[in-house]
């Protein structure tokens, strides 16, 4: 597609990438909370953990048998660490995972900083935060009481998540038995999956893997309903992204019957996001639209995982299939090299999960060329954020850029799994893709009235 005359010349991108800071992730057993694309560690970066809890980054490396962040990064990229990374048995792994959470939530003391008479003990209710003594626990309660209940779920989920990694919890999948306009949110999705889902969850609850998990976890096994709720939260966490893409396709009125299928770009895809994504993870998007002519989902970001690039397919798009592929680089470079040259189809929609450009001037500067490009090429775009506060801040920025906002609000397919702010556990937990913003082109566009009518008809 030829550049439009009113396209602005975008400035050379700054060296910083339009993605959040690379989190400390490893493929091998690690605290999964650290490997998740959450605001806790992605946005702040590994060493900024120390701002809240001095020495925490070192504690993590030590517990994972690693010498440096460089070594950590090496493992992330598929290399073999110099020191003896790895664990003798599941008990050791879970113990070490838990140890990375072991600091006093009130005075921030680490185990190494305690006098001999003191030990860190967890809050009996949530088993998620630790205190160096009754005095710290008492003083902390006014703020901890607001999050204790939610953190209790977090502590269960971070163990249960292991079943997804080992493949002992396989998400229920298959064609939707209900039409897409009936399945508006998680409640209706769970109703639709009904019996099949119950059977899946029962099988996982009764499995040896579940027994082994809790035998290794170093804490009592919770009641079945607690475990079942946790599995459901993990499920919403895994399926939130494909279903949010589907939400965008519907709300933005994208033509699913387009010859040759649809191309969707996921911009600013992080290392973790691609590291943990496998072919098949977006199949739910296909089931959402029976009879579709193919979806090609391309993850673009400077930190796209090497393994993901190698595993992705480049065969022609078949009707009824969802194809994933990755491209490592800045989005506007990708656009000039791949899209403008016609190597890759023009996107029908672009999505950015948690771009975070509201969070700092540096991130905003990094995202600006991409945002202007999406606006000026009038690409239907959806972004997600972690909270209502982030929603307000992001909307303000987009309005200032004269972006035409189609809609925004709470995401009916947000993740229901609470995310703890790792180094600051008494901060209100957040939820991935809690809210969304959809925009299309510029608010200065002359045909906006017609467009609005079309959107109202389409949704
Ligand atoms: Zn303390
Ligand atoms: Zn608690």
Automatic annotation (TrEMBL):
<protein>
    <recommendedName>
        <fullName>MYND-type domain-containing protein</fullName>
    </recommendedName>
</protein>
<feature type="domain" description="MYND-type">
    <location>
        <begin position="104"/>
        <end position="148"/>
    </location>
</feature>
<feature type="compositionally biased region" description="Basic residues">
    <location>
        <begin position="1"/>
        <end position="13"/>
    </location>
</feature>
<dbReference type="Pfam" id="PF01753">
    <property type="entry name" value="zf-MYND"/>
</dbReference>
<dbReference type="InterPro" id="IPR002893">
    <property type="entry name" value="Znf_MYND"/>
</dbReference>
<dbReference type="GO" id="GO:0008270">
    <property type="term" value="F:zinc ion binding"/>
</dbReference>
<keyword id="KW-0863">Zinc-finger</keyword>
<keyword id="KW-0479">Metal-binding</keyword>
<dbReference type="InterPro" id="IPR052839">
    <property type="entry name" value="Mito_gene_expr_regulator"/>
</dbReference>
<feature type="region of interest" description="Disordered">
    <location>
        <begin position="1"/>
        <end position="22"/>
    </location>
</feature>
<dbReference type="InterPro" id="IPR046824">
    <property type="entry name" value="Mss51-like_C"/>
</dbReference>
<keyword id="KW-0862">Zinc</keyword>
<dbReference type="Pfam" id="PF20179">
    <property type="entry name" value="MSS51_C"/>
</dbReference>
């Amino acid at each position: 597609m030829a550049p439009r005359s009113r396209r602005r010349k975008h400035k050379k991108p700054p060296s910083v990438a339009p993605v959040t800071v690379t989190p400390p992730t490893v493929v091998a057993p690690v605290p999964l909370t650290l490997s998740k694309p959450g605001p806790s560690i992605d946005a702040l970066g590994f060493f900024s953990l120390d701002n809240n809890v001095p020495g925490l980054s070192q504690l993590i490396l030590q517990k994972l048998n690693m010498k440096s962040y460089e070594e950590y990064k090496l493992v992330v990229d598929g290399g073999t660490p110099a020191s003896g990374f790895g664990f003798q048995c599941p008990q050791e792994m879970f113990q070490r995972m838990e140890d990375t959470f072991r600091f006093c939530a009130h005075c921030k003391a680490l185990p190494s900083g305690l006098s001999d008479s003191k030990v860190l003990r967890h809050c009996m209710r949530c088993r998620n935060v630790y205190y160096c003594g009754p005095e710290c626990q008492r003083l902390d309660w006014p703020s901890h009481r607001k999050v204790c209940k939610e953190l209790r779920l977090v502590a269960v989920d971070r163990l249960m998540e292991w079943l997804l990694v080992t493949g002992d919890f396989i998400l229920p999948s298959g064609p939707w038995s209900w039409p897409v306009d009936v399945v508006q949110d998680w409640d209706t999705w769970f109703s639709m999956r009904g019996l099949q889902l119950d059977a899946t969850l029962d099988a996982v609850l009764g499995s040896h893997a579940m027994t082994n998990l809790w035998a290794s976890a170093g804490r009592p096994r919770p009641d079945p309903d607690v475990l079942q709720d946790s599995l459901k939260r993990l499920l919403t966490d895994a399926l939130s992204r494909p279903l949010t893409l589907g939400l965008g396709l519907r709300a933005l009125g994208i033509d699913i019957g387009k010859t040759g299928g649809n191309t969707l770009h996921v911009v600013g895809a992080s290392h973790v996001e691609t590291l943990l994504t496998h072919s098949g993870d977006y199949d739910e998007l296909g089931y959402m639209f029976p009879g579709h002519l193919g979806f090609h989902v391309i993850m673009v970001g400077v930190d796209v995982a090497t393994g993901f690039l190698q595993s992705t397919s480049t065969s022609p798009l078949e009707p009824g299939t969802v194809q994933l592929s990755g491209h490592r680089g800045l989005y506007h470079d990708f656009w000039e090299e791949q899209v403008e040259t016609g190597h890759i189809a023009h996107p029908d929609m672009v999505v950015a999960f948690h771009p975070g450009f509201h969070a700092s001037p540096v991130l905003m500067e990094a995202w600006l060329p991409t945002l202007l490009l999406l606006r000026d090429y009038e690409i239907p775009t959806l972004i997600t954020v972690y909270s209502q506060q982030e929603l307000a801040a992001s909307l303000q920025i987009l309005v200032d850029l004269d972006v035409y906002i189609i809609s925004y609000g709470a995401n009916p397919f947000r993740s229901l799994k609470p995310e703890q702010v790792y180094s600051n556990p008494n901060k209100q937990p957040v939820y991935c893709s809690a809210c969304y913003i959809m925009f299309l082109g510029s608010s200065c566009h002359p045909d906006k009235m017609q467009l609005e009518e079309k959107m109202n008809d389409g949704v």
